[in-house]
Amino acid sequence: MSSPSSFQSEPGDGNPSRVGTTLETYIFEGMLGRPEARGYFTSLLNQIALAAKMVTSRVRRAGLANVLGTTGDTNATGDSVQKLDQEAHETLLRVLGRRHHCAAAASEEEESIRVLSTAASASYLVVFDPLDGSSNIDVNISIGTIFGVYRKMHDGVATEQDFLRPGRELQAAGYVIYGSSTQFVITTGGAVHCFTYDPTVGEFLLSHENIRVPEHHPTYSINEGNAGRWTEGVKKWNAWVKGEAKAEKRPYSLRYVGTLVADAHRTLLRGGIFAYPADVKAPNGKLRLLYEANPLSFIFEAAGGVGTTGKERILDIVPTGLHQRVPLILGSTKNVAELQKFHE
Ligand code: AFP
Fold this sequence. Notes:
The protein has helices at 23-32, 40-60, 83-98, 232-241, 260-270, 289-302, 333-343; strands at 70-74, 80-82, 102-107, 114-115, 124-132, 143-151, 172-178, 182-187, 192-198, 203-208, 219-221, 253-254, 273-276, 287-288, 306-308, 325-326, 328-331. By secondary structure, it is an alpha+beta fold.
């Protein structure tokens, strides 16, 4: 998979390793490889990285800064809004609006899109989940920010319709995980890289170059509390992963954080499978296509993994609404194929 704005020189192309490079330099070098580049895309990605630094600074002080807890409101998808959620949402909008390269943004926290600039230079659209896993904030468990970047395809003011595009049209996608360290994972459709934040220098430094999802790992990640509501196929697969078969490394180990970014990050690096399938209570699944499923599927595919509903490729779905939900299965090719066998 490659996008028109893929970084030109990627690891594995004969260049020496760039581990230690700052995210800013990495993005800048990507632009240097594209003679036609105007610097807008580069600027936009750098603004997202700046927002990530600002959010991480708040997350790291959350227990001290009186920002834990809920605001008392519910968001566009009916979840209760945490104070930190709201802050991250506002930070991203403010930072994205500054340089007039982002025409509009759609956030999981807001019902409608937000037009940020009508300047001719505002040629990108950004979708984001400002703080994924917010119910984990108050108990000091990893949370994250997820984002995706699309090109705006016309000269007029951005509309909601501009966002209803399949994920395969993403120009870039990434996430930030606020875990034992803060890491920024990004792809423009070529290689997937991870940058770790060094708070002493205030920079993201390339730490995991050219991430590839292992083909298989004996780990599964699913909310087992929903087992009674699953389809017969998922129930049978679940019984199978727990069955005894030493040669197949079964039973698999269960790992479930309840923050998509954290469960996806582990699966990206170690392999295995993450699933939030459709069930009788949530026939369309729980997770959001635009803010969660698409960016993560874009990253998984770029890293050699899979993003599917179980029936169709996530990146091929044409959205019908900003806050649409989808069943989501992410993971290693072999693990996902195992589940799909039971689906059929
Ligand atoms: P919150 O942001 O409300 O904590 O939801 C997190 C999330 O959207 C996603 O990050 C998790 O993978 C998923 O929900 C967990 O859902 P369950 O609590 O139903 O397992």
